Amino acid sequence: YVDYLVPGFIATGVLFAGIGTASAMAEDMEQGFIDRLRSLPIPRASVLGARALADTALLVWSTAFTVAIAFAVGFRLHGSALDGLAAFGLVVLFGFAFEWLFITLGLFAGNAQAAQAMGMIVFPFAFVSSAYVPVSSMPGWLQVFAAHQPLTYMVDAVRALTLGPHAQAVLGHPIAYYETRALIWAVAILDISLPLAIARYRRG
Fold first, then answer.
1. Percent of the chain scored above 90 by pLDDT?
2. For residue 76, with 0-12 CB atoms within 10 Å meaning exposed, 13-18 middle and 19 or more buried, which class applies?
3. How is residue 197 annotated by DSSP?
4. How confident is the model at residue 196, as a pLDDT?
5. What's the CA dihedral at 103, 7, 184, 15 to 10 degrees?
6. Which of 32, 75, 147, 170 is deepest in the core (most CB within 10 A)?
């Protein structure tokens, strides 16, 4: 079970880390720090880009630490080392996309408490997904959402890369099926969140 659970635990960790990003962004807005940055002769998008990159760097560190703990408790990589690195890179890319979503929430929230509350949207995505249990074990009315939401595709893509030759038998589709859909979701989240964040930042 540990080999099934760890990819889900790592992928959902990306979402829970994002709540802090939303709160920090809202706090910077509320306390006037962003207003001071707006007065500087720098591209306005660079402030948000720096926040996204810095928080993604922290995400890389925390994910690496989580992976180390996972190996300590018995998780094993059944694919190649390259597959493992690809899974790690996919989690980081997914985290970067969601950083922009949480930055957007923080900009719209108004204060840190509201941003934290808005960040709670991660819970339905985390628990109504394949992260912890198979989608097929859920009530039928939940399965449609659970099977096609972004976190499920990301978790199953990471799972497919780490389970190795047994992945298709466990998950039902080849690796490319999950990777493609996970990447499409990541790009879609970026395409929506990034311009919204920049537009909100410019309006002040």
1. 39
2. exposed
3. H
4. 93
5. -10
6. 75
